[in-house]
Write a structure and sequence with these properties.
single chain, alpha/beta, 7-stranded mixed sheet
């Protein structure tokens, strides 16, 4: 299947990029591993969101003859052609046929692969009932029952408020929101919202829905307790140790850019940030010809920044640079917001000391914190303990180990995820040039 522009990711950035490029009459293909559009921010389908921007984008794209969606599809391999790129994609077929593989050829690619939640280990974090904050929000939106359950939401960042509000809307009893950031930094962040009035309105709306919830800054989870499931959490609440009974704990420490496909395509990454992000120019172009990146992959900044970057990338990739320039000022505004977000929600050092020697860090291979402490870097630990060699290929423990030990994880190794042998045999590698 041939495409002028292939967009990987159907979240806000991907939809905005597609809408911009489609206006130029280009053949657009959008792939996403979810069942429907929206990504994590507009999970459940762009057409189902209260945000009118989501509905407008979906309506526009579904009325374009030059736009094709490919859901439940994942990129497993990439290579370069003389005039573009080819990607092996696996798509979930009918129940009897299983995964189906095919090749997508594209002259240009726009990466809108979003972000992943940062999860950090502490005693008891593998107990049933302990999830990521964003993870539980996604599960509940997909129908996971939370009604009547006592839930503690903890970690860092404004996402905690949105998660708590979403859970309450679905009948959960959110008892506490524990933010690890000190009150002084929260005040600093709050003052910075004066530069983005729309965020003030969002914050007021969230606080109204959370008036029955105990909110504490300068507080964090130390351990989770229970025999075969979670029953309580031990927390440091503003310097005092407390035990809170609960049925579930949603604990997340912000988001990190998802750059695996960008790395596999040999796009240069910015190593100066806390976590690798894709380096782009003013047109959202990466260091590889014909490849652009927009949204959280260039640095976590939220839906407004993702929409602006997506519009710029889509216009630039379709040779509409004058239209792209219209979004420059908007992008600059939301980049400044993102910079304040990262500055004011810096993770505290105490979070590095929570895991005990027997706390599992690599959940796929059951590798403990004590085992990892015996090794000098990621590769050494991987060779001796199999850390990062399980089903998630280090996507969870790799980020945690970067925070805990400052270890650099291998990025972009092919295949990008587990795949059928038959899928990898599709490409005639003698006629293609691997990206290196």
């Amino acid at each position: 299947m041939n495409s002028d522009i292939l967009i990987i990711g159907a979240g806000p950035a991907g939809l905005a990029a597609a809408a911009a490029a489609a206006d130029a009459g280009k053949q657009i293909d959008i792939i996403d591993d979810n069942f429907m559009s929206g990504g994590q921010i507009w999970r459940g389908g762009a057409q189902q969101q209260r945000d009118p921007r989501a509905q407008a984008l979906w309506h526009k794209l579904t009325n374009k003859n030059n736009v094709r969606f490919h859901f439940q599809s994942k990129v497993i391999h990439t290579c370069r052609k003389n005039d573009g790129y080819e990607l092996i994609v696996e798509t979930q077929g009918a129940s009897q046929s299983g995964m189906q593989s095919h090749v997508l050829s594209a002259k240009k690619i726009i990466l809108c692969t979003g972000a992943r939640e940062l999860l950090l280990p502490f005693p008891g974090w593998t107990l049933p009932g302990v999830t990521g904050a964003g993870g539980l929000q996604a599960l509940s939106k997909a129908g996971y029952p939370v009604a009547g359950k006592r839930i503690v939401v903890a970690g860092s960042g404004p996402l905690l408020l949105a998660v708590a509000a979403s859970l309450i809307e679905r009948g959960a009893q959110v008892t506490h929101i524990l933010e690890q950031t000190p009150f002084s930094q929260l005040c600093q962040f709050g003052l910075g919202l004066l530069a983005t009035p729309s965020k003030i309105s969002q914050a007021i709306g969230l606080w109204r829905s959370l008036k029955s919830v105990t909110y504490r800054s300068n507080s964090y989870v130390q351990a989770a307790s229970g025999t075969d499931k979670l029953t309580s959490v031990r927390v440091n609440m503003q310097g005092e140790e407390r035990e809170i009974a609960c049925d579930m704990l949603a604990c997340g420490y912000g988001l990190i850019p998802n750059v695996d496909i960008a790395a596999a395509l040999a796009c240069e990454l910015d190593a100066n940030s806390n976590y690798p992000r894709v380096k782009v120019d003013e047109w959202q172009a990466t260091t590889q010809d014909g490849i652009y990146c927009a949204g959280e992959g260039t640095g976590v900044g939220g839906v407004d920044l993702a929409l602006a970057e997506g519009a710029i990338a889509g216009n630039a990739a379709s040779n509409q640079k004058t239209q792209a320039e219209h979004y420059f000022a908007e992008r600059d505004t939301w980049k400044k917001f993102a910079q304040r977000l990262h500055r004011d929600f810096t993770l505290r050092d105490e979070l590095r000391q929570l895991a005990s020697a027997d706390t599992i860090v690599c959940r796929c291979e059951d590798v403990s914190f004590g085992q990892l402490q015996q090794h000098r870097d990621w590769r050494d630990a991987k060779l001796h303990t199999r850390c990062g060699m399980g089903a998630c290929q280090g996507r969870l423990c790799g980020a945690a180990n970067r925070f805990l030990f400052s270890w650099e994880k291998d990025l972009g190794r092919l295949p990008l995820s587990s795949a059928k042998i038959g899928s990898l045999q599709i490409l005639n590698t003698e006629q293609k040039t691997p990206i290196n």
